[in-house]
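Case study B.
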Amino acid sequence: MISNKPELDRYIQRDAAALLYDNAIAGIVISLITSTFLVFAFNNPLTDSFQQMWWWGISTLLVFRLADVFIWKVKRQSTDFNGEKSISRFTTGVNLTAVMWAIYAVYIITHDSTIELTTTLIIIAALAGGSATILAAHKYTAMFYAFILLAPASIGLLLSEQYALQLLGVLGFFYSIVMLITSKKASEFTLNTLLLKNENKVLIHHMEEQVEQRTQKIYELSNLDPLTQLFNRAAFLNQLKFLITTSNKPFALLFVDLDGFKKINDSIGHEAGDQILRRTADRLKQCSLNMQLLCRWGGDEFLIVLTETNEASAVEKSRQIITILSEHHKTENSILSVGATIGIALYPEHATSEERLIQLADIAMYYQKKLSRSTVGVFSEQMEKLHSHELHLKSGLTKAIEKKQLRLVFQPIIRSENYEVAAFEALIRWQFDDENIPPDEFICIAEQYGLIHEIGAWVLKNACWQASQWDLEQKMAVCVNVSVIQLQEESFINVVEDALSSSFLPAELLHIEITESVFASNVNMIASQIKCLQAKGIKVSIDDFGTGYSSLSALQDLAVDMVKIDRSFVNKIDSNGDAIISAVMHIASSFDLLVIAEGVETEIQVQKLLKLGVHYFQGYYYSKPIEVEDIPSYLSKASMPLKQISKAK
Ligand code: C2E
Ligand code: MG
Ligand code: MG
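Model:
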């Protein structure tokens, strides 16, 4: 039952030592009195000199023992004393006393036969009897004491010539055997009692330890983030609340969000992601002065409170943190790196409640990240206005489809070879609170809040349906813009299949446009989705080519069919735009891609683009995006070559 034997032995020894020392004074005092009485009460010239010498000896010994008892009581009892050492010191004293008594008894018995002898015998018998209880806490000492006091004296009596003394000797010897057994039993009983008592004590001690360990575990579970061992949300909020209520001093709250973490998690795996988070936490611990005011808020977000600071020093400290967090992480197989963007909210300047402060620091981080990653931004009212406008749009967007506020317009794409309409690009429009919200503004909100899947599916379905309704001799394709977030969704192919099957539009008439930001995402996943689309006969193009995180190797990996040169280059065709377009044409021809120029607004641009060999034009020069009901009349006009239309305008 008791797992820790040494610990139990230690407890028993301590108790035994305490018992021995507690009973010691009575024993020592009795020994002192009786020895003095025996030595000085009888006057026998034969034994006097031995007795006095013996008395000095035993008295010195007893005084030493008495002093030892006092020292032990004063110094040791209250401390974590060593039971084993105390016992051996005590038993040495007791056993020496026993030996002294034995010497005395033997001497008197062999040198005296008077009343003094009888008295001595009575006294040592009484001392031996008492020792069984007083010394019960140490078995061998208790047995030795009783035996050594009685046995040698009894043998001495047995050797005497007087019959009466011999009888006394026999009696004394038996008595010493009985005392030996009694002392042994009394001692075993006492030690057994100590064992039971201490078994309970050890048990309770172990239970207390376990309770303590469990309490610690519960504390960790309820207060610490298991991955990073930093405070979790609840614990941090408590600390922050405490700080606000107990101190009125200004402080800065830093909202830290890692840049590029998701990419590591998605492409290398969650194990690597976890490692980055743990290391980030360690780095934050190292550069944070107060661990209580540091937490993992969730995912790759961390919060830090900087006390005794102002805006300038909080910004400076944040920059240092960004530098530290952006250092490379060396792992077994690779070197990984993430950045960090930090938003700051100040107490009490920006808010006085913990929740609001965190919210404002989050807003500051969010806008800073939009502006420029791995930098620091301090909260401003302007940010909050933008934020509430964004939230307003977001809540409007969730009901936009249901309320039929969304519609599609179509912008023609002209084949440069014969100026005929080759396709229409479907562009979304949203009328919200009597206001037209431009897609550039709300598409990113839809992406951020996960609404893009529903909206994107609606666009695909409607665009395909409209295209299938165009009653034309020559079939015309419809180009649909697709967000990368949609494309990365496994079910995206099913959404496309649904749109095609419900509209009966042939797959060859559907073109998917993906913006160039695709290069920043999981290229493998996107490449396989594109292959899947192409296998069905759908054409895929890269939109706004040249503006995003372009990479030629990714262009090769993605193996698209077309690129759409961004209108900013067409716009600058007179300055350096044509050099860029000509470079794109070279790349496109080596990858065997068709090129569409966006934002064509003038005849001069058309001519220049023609010379550069662009395959398709799209822009206000030919038509602004038109309502679906205007498409037939537009196309009837377009049946004469479009160049003539524009000239006729
Ligand atoms: P985009 O795909 O590059 O679409 C072309 C944008 O350029 C359209 O703006 C169009 O109206 C505009 N545009 C066309 N020709 C000219 C011109 O000659 N001059 C000028 N100044 N502009 C021209 P819009 O409709 O505002 O769309 C903006 C962006 O919103 C689109 O750029 C596309 O990225 C996104 N978007 C539009 N509809 C959807 C959609 O249904 N789904 C997704 N995911 N994104 C969409
Ligand atoms: Mg487009
Ligand atoms: Mg574009």
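Residues 543-544, 564, 566, 598 surround magnesium ion (ligand 3) (CB under 6 Å). The remaining cases will be described in the next quarterly update.
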